[in-house]
Design goal:
single chain, alpha+beta, Helicase, Ruva Protein, domain 3, 2 domains, three-stranded antiparallel beta sheet, two-stranded antiparallel sheet, 28% helix, 11% strand, UDP-N-acetyl-alpha-D-galactosamine:polypeptide N-acetylgalactosaminyltransferase 8 (GalNAc-T8), disulfide bond, Ricin_B-like_lectins, transferase
Length: 200
């Protein structure tokens, strides 16, 4: 984790950092969600002075995508309840049988029960009401041209986001979401509710 300051006693009471996280990524999100759900709060203190010293050599692999995805799924397994599917959708993974081992989460679930933490729906309603719930997504993936398979639907240049055909790279600008309203949303999912102008 980069930079944060915490009350040592409170951090200990709520279980410290999750030792089951892999390498790097997601521990800040996990801790923030846990603090809110288990009786604390996260505050931004604009006048604070904190330094972050980077290591000259980083002992982990240059591509952190795999560990970040695994850690995000671990957080979802423990804390997100019925909203776990949102993480799978955001990482473009199947809802069943994604094949990623998130490790043993039983101790963290016991901790959640012991601390009498609130459900994630409380977090959405009280802490982050602008968070997109994604309750209406039926399917997701990439839309690939059947005649010219090297081209995929792409969100196009931002701002404007007028969908275009672009050479397939299968990254976030080309992820598509089919909704219960029979709309196709092209491009990465945002964390805030907003007027979506990327619908077909």
């Amino acid at each position: 984790m980069g930079i944060f300051a915490a009350d040592r006693a409170f951090l200990g009471e709520i279980g410290g950092l999750d030792g089951g996280m892999s390498v790097y990524g997601g521990e800040n999100v996990e801790l923030g969600i846990r603090v809110w759900l288990c009786g604390g709060s996260v505050e931004v203190v604009p006048c604070s002075r904190i330094a972050h010293i980077e290591r000259a050599h980083k002992p982990y692999a240059p591509d952190l995508n795999l560990s970040m995805r695994r850690n995000a799924l671990r957080v979802a397994d423990i804390w997100l309840d019925e909203y776990k599917k949102n993480v799978l959708i955001a990482w473009n993974l199947p809802l069943q049988g994604h094949g990623i081992d998130t490790g043993d989460v039983s101790e963290r679930r016991k901790l959640r029960e012991k601390l009498k933490c609130k459900p994630f729906s409380w977090y959405i309603d009280n802490v982050y009401p602008s968070l997109e719930r994604l309750d209406n997504i039926l399917g997701y993936g990439v839309l690939q041209n059947t005649l010219f398979k090297k081209y995929c639907a792409d969100q196009g240049v931002v701002p404007g986001s007028i969908p275009v055909l672009y050479e397939c790279h299968f990254q976030q600008p080309q992820l598509c979401y089919y909704t219960t309203d029979s709309e196709i949303i092209i491009g990465g999912i945002k964390s805030h509710n907003y007027n979506n102008n990327r619908c077909l």
